[in-house]
Amino acid sequence: MHAAISRTAQEKIKAALAGKPNVVVYSYPGQRHAFSRNNGAHYDAAAAALANGRTRDFLNRALR
């Protein structure tokens, strides 16, 4: 979740979505806003690859 969202709010969101069959919430600890933006100030290749892979997998499942 976005760093601007407090931990308390994050936990409430995660709890509200727990058990929903079509929802998965991922957090990327230590990452800042736009960590997957190529050449961005906070780019992190490993975290970006993980997030982008998860997005690709989701779209492959959802759009079939």
From TrEMBL:
InterPro entries on file: AB_hydrolase_fold, Dienelactn_hydro
Entry's Gene Ontology molecular function annotations: hydrolase activity
Residue intervals of the Dienelactone hydrolase domain: 8-62
SUPFAM superfamilies: alpha/beta-Hydrolases (SSF53474)
Highest taxon, organism lineage: Bacteria
Name listed for the protein in its UniProt record: Dienelactone hydrolase domain-containing protein
Organism: Cupriavidus necator (Alcaligenes eutrophus)
